[in-house]
Write a structure and sequence with these properties.
With 479 residues, the chain is an all-alpha fold. Helices cover 73% and strands 3% of the residues. The protein has one domain. The strands form two sheets. The chain has a two-stranded antiparallel sheet.
């Protein structure tokens, strides 16, 4: 769909998602001047639904590169953009407590979420390393601010400071890696990078190239919480307000792996002999530290933080299995796993937020007796935990199955190790279920208040998780 005025103005509908998010983010700031903030939540959801529809309209459309070939909106971009948009839409109802409390900065929070989505889309649609850097920075700066949004909470301030300082170092390493890649190849464009690496003009530049690739892996590994660059995750997730923690653990991770896969598959397939052992080592270490770390936690939020690390390990299996292919079984497995993981994680964090807001505790004991006081919350949490654990009839099961099946053809040792780590995961994913159904609630415990839109959202998340576990075929080959 193209609108033109003479020969001077041309607007391509394929850029609608980025344009709408940018404009809506600015408009949302002006809505903050209203006396009541009750219009902000439904307004933000309607705007995101409009963007989701505009993004869907780009599927199989005739695409062209933008910003001097730095950004491309193709089916790959549309697919991963759909995940981050859907994730944000189903997350927004859990910001209802901010509306009820009359949070003065709610308009700014929503604007930052919209702006961060612009960065996420750039990360999955980039065709130029500088566009990747710009997307990461837009997303990261927004998250630094949101992590410290609870100004009078020392834990939130600590989380923001840690995230900012470590994120700044990781960004510097990433940028240095980009500079070294440019120095070795003379280009930032992904396709030209692939050609230059496959036909090196000067063998003396190979060390510079490999160091650049390694530094880029480190920089992106930090963003997706891959070990050994995950050390910030538990403290930042615990100190950040739960609503923004849920966004951080889903949207940021999905965008990060979308960018990671594109980098390896489009720009670096000829360097596979170098990065493949590195990614395999990161994968094994991430699975080990993520699962063992989660098993040792007593806080539900910290358990979910280490769980996020472990799931980065499973997604790294997809990167290994892809072997530089952007459309194969492994790439489709990464897409499906990202969707299933995001849906289950939003459901889990949504329940945790509601419980923490009411009971003022985020340990497992805070979930005691939830099966009797709030059967819906307990059921949704059960479905989410089973999906994250990879139990059959949930989306998480087929997410793991697709990735492990793709890797099992050649990387059987990694698959066996992942299965063993999944068994460790069963231990800590079952602990919330034991608390909810087998532990008595406090004598004065009252039902956790859940409003209508939150009930509908939780039911939708649980239903979608089950549908993905029963009929995964309609999304399994989308790429």
């Amino acid at each position: 769909m193209t609108f033109a005025v003479g020969r001077t103005f041309l607007f391509e509908a394929h850029m609608t998602s980025i344009i709408l998010l940018s404009v809506f983010g600015i408009l949302n700031l002006f809505l903050g001047f209203l006396r009541s903030n009750k219009v902000l939540l439904p307004g933000a959801m309607l705007l995101l639904l409009a963007v989701f529809g505009a993004n869907y309209a780009d599927w199989n459309a005739e695409h062209a590169p933008y910003f001097n070939n730095m950004l491309v909106v193709d089916n790959y971009t549309v697919a991963f953009t759909g995940i981050v948009l859907l994730t944000t839409i189903v997350l927004l109802p859990f910001s209802r407590s901010y509306v009820v409390a009359g949070e003065q900065n709610l308009a700014e929070y929503y604007a930052l979420l919209l702006f961060s989505l612009v960065g996420a889309i750039m990360m999955v649609g980039y065709d130029h390393l500088l566009m990747l850097f710009v997307g990461i920075e837009i997303l990261s700066v927004c998250m630094y601010v949101l992590a410290g949004s609870r100004k009078r909470d020392s834990r939130s301030n600590e989380a923001a400071l840690k995230y900012f300082l470590m994120g700044a170092f990781a960004t510097g390493i990433l940028l240095f890696g980009i500079a070294l890649l440019y120095g070795a190849t003379g280009t930032f464009a992904l396709s030209q990078l692939a050609t230059a690496i496959a036909t090196p003009a000067n063998a003396s530049l190979q060390p510079m190239l490999y160091i650049g690739i390694l530094m880029m892996i480190i920089g992106i590994g930090f963003k997706v919480s891959a070990a050994p660059f995950h050390f910030w995750t538990p403290d930042v997730y615990e100190g950040t307000p739960t609503f923004f923690t849920a966004f951080m653990s889903t949207v940021v991770k999905t965008a990060g792996f979308g960018a990671f896969l594109k980098l390896l598959a489009v720009a670096l397939p000829a360097a596979q002999g170098f990065w493949m052992p590195t990614i395999q080592a990161m994968c094994a270490l991430t699975l080990l530290l993520g699962n063992v770390g989660a098993a040792a936690q007593t806080s539900t939020k910290r358990m979910l933080a280490y769980s996020s690390v472990s799931h980065a390990g499973y997604l790294l299996i997809g990167l290994v299995a892809s072997k530089g292919n952007l459309t194969g079984d492994a790439a489709n497995g990464i897409f499906f796993y990202s969707l299933a993981y995001s849906i289950a994680t939003i459901a889990a964090f949504g329940v945790v937020k509601l419980v923490v807001d009411h009971r003022q505790r985020d340990d497992y004991a805070g979930l005691n007796g939830l099966g009797r006081t709030n059967p819906l919350l307990a059921f949704v949490m059960t479905v989410a935990m089973l999906s994250l654990a990879g139990i059959p009839l949930t989306g998480g099961f087929f997410g793991k199955f697709f990735l492990l099946a793709a890797a099992g053809r050649e990387f059987i040792g990694l698959v066996v190790f992942a299965v063993i780590m999944s068994m460790v995961g069963l231990y800590y994913y079952l602990r919330p279920l034991i608390a909810m159904y087998l532990r008595p609630a406090e004598p004065d415990a009252t039902p956790v208040p859940v409003d209508g839109i939150q009930k509908v959202t939780l039911a939708f998340l649980a239903l979608l998780t089950i549908v993905l576990g029963i009929a995964p075929g309609f999304l399994s080959g989308i790429l």
